[in-house]
Design goal:
alpha/beta; 5-stranded mixed β-sheet; 3-stranded parallel β-sheet; 53% helix; 15% strand
Length: 394
């Protein structure tokens, strides 16, 4: 269209020039050549002003190739038909603009972005995160969805992991703290008993520091565990022993409660309860995703797969310990196909927005943004959101 207009304009100017020359030959004093020249100048100015706007307007009859990938609940494939949040939103946008389009499916987000970059596709829509690195290579629409990363693990009961990890229990921070306090109390009590019993004629402790202090430590530890088989002979020693036995009862109760709590939490929640528990565990996610970049930056062992469904299978088959991916995708799987088999733990630890990706300087960016804002103002966007992410979907 732009080329045709330019050709006609050049033809018009050429005709005006010929007319001016012919007129000047007839009459050098006529005003008609000047009038034609002025009109030509005005048309030229209008052309220069209007041309940029025309260049940015998409051809309404052009058929767009829209790159997408299956990733429920944003894009769902069922018997050759696509549905989902992103599909419904795109259909609403194109209905307002009046564009013809055709979906082209790609297996991964990397393939989708490559198609948009090399011009194989005009637009890309699915669950595509807007990042600073990607914005250097592509144009993005206004954010169409706010999400982030989250962790999914196997359901403890469904995976048969009811037997707790005893070794992990003994090395847990809470129990190590209890043991440290017990050692301090034992050493303190042992010195008090040695000082009070060493001068008693029938005392159970030797007068010399070694081996007397070792015997005192043994007695303090046994009494703390309510297993003392010998008692001090002196008055001060017996008074201390009574107090120490009460401390032993309280200590055993506290130790039992701490161990029980740790075992219960371990059975209910497993080893991974948040992002801080990921180091040392093998985590699955899709190749080229923001989740893969996040895990690599933090030196967390990661197994990259082509599709998110492969990560689900690896988790259920115990080949990996967790899956890190977009929160809405994991929540949808956990509430539907993976119900009772997996659970999403922890909170969102990397918030990110999804957008429609386009090539740089795309003429479709401005109309898409305009319609997207209009859909949000009219409530159409909220209706689509509630359809796929309402309470009944999670």
């Amino acid at each position: 269209m732009i080329t045709a207009i330019a050709r006609k304009f050049r033809l018009f100017l050429a005709n005006c020039g010929r007319f001016i020359v012919a007129t000047q030959r007839k009459s050098r004093h006529s005003l008609l050549p000047h009038i034609c020249l002025g009109l030509g100048s005005i048309i030229l100015v209008l052309w220069l002003v209007i041309y940029p706007g025309l260049a940015q307007q998409p051809e309404p009859t052009q058929k767009l190739l829209v790159a997408t990938r299956v990733i429920p609940p944003f894009v769902i494939a069922d018997k050759g038909q696509l549905s989902g949040f992103s599909i419904d939103l795109w259909q609403s946008i194109t209905k307002e603009i009046g564009l013809n389009y055709e979906f082209v499916e790609y297996p991964t987000v990397a393939n989708l972005l490559s198609a948009v970059k090399d011009g194989t596709a005009n637009v890309g829509i699915a669950a595509i995160s807007i990042t600073a690195e990607r914005q250097q290579q592509f144009d993005f629409s206004l954010p169409m969805f706010a999400g982030g990363l989250q962790i999914m693990v196997r359901n403890a009961e469904a995976s048969g992991s009811g037997v707790p990890n005893i070794f992990q229990l003994f090395f847990s921070a809470s129990l190590l703290q209890v043991i440290a306090i017990a050692l301090v109390l034992i050493i303190f009590a042992a010195h008090v008993i040695w000082l009070s019993e060493r001068h008693h004629e029938e005392g159970m402790i030797s007068k010399s520091y070694f081996p007397g202090i070792f015997k005192a430590c043994w007695w303090a530890a046994a009494t703390l565990a309510t297993q003392a088989d010998e008692m001090p002979k002196g008055v001060i020693g017996r008074f201390i022993a009574i107090i120490w036995m009460f401390i032993g009862v309280l200590f055993v109760a506290y130790f039992t409660a701490s161990a029980t709590t740790s075992l219960t939490v371990q059975q209910l929640q497993g080893d991974i309860r948040g992002v801080d528990d990921l180091p040392g565990h093998l985590v699955a996610t899709t190749a080229g995703s923001t989740a893969a970049s996040y895990l690599k930056e933090r030196k967390i062992p990661v197994q990259e797969v082509g599709k998110i469904e492969q990560a689900y299978d690896a988790l259920l088959n115990k080949k990996v310990d967790a899956v890190v991916f977009d929160s809405p995708v994991l929540l949808f799987y956990a509430a539907n196909e993976g119900k009772g088999k997996v659970e999403v733990v922890g909170s969102i630890f990397r918030e990110e927005n999804y957008g429609i990706v386009l090539p740089n300087n795309s003429p479709y960016r401005k109309p898409i943004n305009s319609v997207l804002l209009g859909l949000k103002e009219k409530g159409t966007y909220q209706a689509i959101y509630d359809k796929w992410f309402g309470a009944n979907k999670s």
